[in-house]
Q: What sequence folds into this?
């Protein structure tokens, strides 16, 4: 089994201009701006939900994710919809083993790395009897099946790791 069987990696061309401002915006958000938080494990909420309009720099990233998803799924963009959340990992944080197939209508999942300093923890996909480990890279998308269990190992850097989780499903 090759890595391409499990995950599709895509470097976002617009990341150089978007990521620094987006990371600063996200890390500067007050706690009360998040509409919902979920997955409270190891002393932190793994998922932080916010309206995309409150983070203008996020729109091009989400549009790129939708376009690449349409390409991978061989579907028109207007036949797809997405949901997203923010994940901020501070030193010592981990993301527990989970999958994204809770709603039974997700077609694809993705993560986009806004800020991934050295020591950010490995993204680990558990597929069949193998584990694929990938170092996160700022400006990179990783697309994978929503039923594939995955986790992130401990973040060791003092600089936070900031990513966006995305689920793509059928529109309407």
A:
């Amino acid at each position: 089994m090759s890595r391409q069987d499990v995950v599709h990696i895509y470097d976002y061309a617009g990341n150089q201009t978007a990521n620094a401002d987006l990371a600063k915006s996200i890390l500067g958000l007050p706690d009360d701006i998040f509409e919902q938080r979920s997955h409270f494990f190891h002393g932190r909420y793994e998922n932080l939900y916010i309206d995309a309009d409150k983070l203008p720099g996020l729109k091009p990233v989400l549009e790129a994710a939708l376009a690449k998803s349409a390409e991978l799924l061989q579907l028109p963009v207007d036949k797809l919809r997405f949901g997203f959340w923010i994940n901020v990992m501070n030193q010592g944080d981990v993301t527990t083993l989970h999958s994204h197939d809770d709603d039974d209508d997700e077609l694809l999942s993705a993560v986009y790395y806004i800020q991934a300093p050295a020591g950010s923890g490995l993204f680990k996909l558990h597929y069949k009897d193998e584990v694929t480990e990938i170092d996160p890279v700022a400006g990179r998308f990783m697309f994978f099946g929503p039923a594939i269990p995955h986790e992130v190992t401990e973040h060791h850097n003092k600089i936070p790791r900031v990513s966006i989780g995305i689920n793509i499903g059928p529109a309407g």
Residues 3-170 form a domain with the Jelly Rolls fold (CATH 2.60.120.620). Residues 25 and 55 are 7 Å apart (CA to CA). Residues 59-73 form the longest helix (15 residues).
